Amino acid sequence: MTLAVETTPPIDVAVGILMKPNGDVLLGQRPEGKPYAGYWEFPGGKVEAGESVLDALKREFLEELGIEVMSAEAWCGVQHIYPHAHVRLHFYISREWRGEPQSLEGQAFAWQGSVDVTPLLPATIPLIEWIDKLRLPV
């Protein structure tokens, strides 16, 4: 029931936006077996107890994509209530990482300039516009 989700404390989630020098960003597709399977989102995952958001981000990127995030800056926070969970998303932008993305959890991923993958996870949609304003001129 939605009311129960709305009254539970939000789950903190670390979300990373890998941004190449040309402004392209990495999106991943949620794998089968997870809520919203097939939807595209920025990679990340749940912050564990006692873990900082940045540490969670680094761990998730290593576990899911085999990438070592060298630095990332906090960008924004968004709360979203899905039918299955109330989440507080902590977005970080990283322009410095080591390695190339690998599909370690069987997920598809794609570098996007002008985002043209669908469907997008609902909490991701407003961020696409905001990111367009951040892109560095080539």
Question: Key terms for this structure?
Answer:
four-stranded mixed β-sheet; 138 residues; Nucleoside Triphosphate Pyrophosphohydrolase; 3 helices
Q: What fold name goes in the CATH topology slot?
A: Nucleoside Triphosphate Pyrophosphohydrolase
- Largest beta sheet, briefly? 4 strands, mixed
| N-end to C-end Cα span | 47 Å
Oligomer: single chain
Gyration radius, rounded: 14 Å
- Level-2 CATH architecture: Alpha-Beta Complex
Q: What's the total number of strands?
A: 7
Proportion of helical residues: 10-25%
Sequence stretches where pLDDT stays below 50 over 5 or more residues: none
Q: Helix-strand pattern, N to C?
A: HEEEEHEEEH
Q: Any idea of the CATH class?
A: Alpha Beta
Task: Name the shape in a single word.
Answer: globular
Q: Give the percentage of residues in beta strands.
A: 35-45%
Question: How would you characterize the overall build of this protein?
Answer:
The chain is α+β, with helices and mostly antiparallel strands. It has a single domain, classed as Nucleoside Triphosphate Pyrophosphohydrolase (Alpha-Beta Complex). It is 21% helix and 36% strand. The protein contains three helices and seven strands. The protein has helices spanning 2-7, 53-65, 125-134, and strands at 11-18, 25-29, 40-41, 44-46, 68-81, 86-98, 109-112. The strands form two sheets. The protein has a four-stranded mixed β-sheet with strand order 4-1-6-5. The chain is globular and about 40 Å long. It starts with a helix and ends with a helix. The model has no long low-confidence stretch (mean pLDDT 90).
